[in-house]
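FORM 12-B: Structure-to-Sequence Request
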């Protein structure tokens, strides 16, 4: 399920500044610099106090493809095997039980009118599940 939330709905209750369509950002201690993409290929840098609400478009992450040189170097590289340290903490751990979980209860359909079904549901929640 895809959900889209307007940034103003996030920032208004909190009283936070908001910047939409951000392309890149750089953080400082008390402020944030956001590079905002404008129409026609222009960009604008905006300074914002923290905390703030940012919406980021897909252009912030540039894909990096492996080069042929990097692939060949990775093939030749030795794969090291790491062994866990033999510490006292590791010796205290042991498997107590290994099992397949049991199947839970199946779905139960409640027939009848909505009023009767509601009464039956409340009864089952009280007596069987004990959640009410």
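FORM 12-B RESPONSE
SEQUENCE OUT:
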């Amino acid at each position: 399920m895809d959900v889209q939330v307007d940034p103003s709905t996030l920032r208004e209750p909190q009283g936070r500044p908001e910047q939409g369509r951000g392309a890149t950002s750089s953080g400082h201690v008390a402020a944030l610099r956001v590079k905002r993409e404008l129409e026609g290929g222009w960009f604008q840098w905006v300074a914002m106090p923290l905390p703030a609400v940012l919406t980021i478009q897909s252009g912030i992450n540039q894909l990096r493809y492996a080069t042929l040189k990097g692939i060949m170097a990775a093939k030749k590289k030795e794969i090291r095997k790491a062994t866990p340290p033999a510490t006292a903490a590791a010796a205290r751990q042991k498997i107590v039980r290994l099992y397949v979980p049991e199947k839970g209860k199946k779905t139960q359909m409640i027939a009848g009118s909505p009023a009767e079904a509601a009464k039956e549901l409340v009864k089952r929640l009280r007596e069987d599940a004990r959640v009410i």
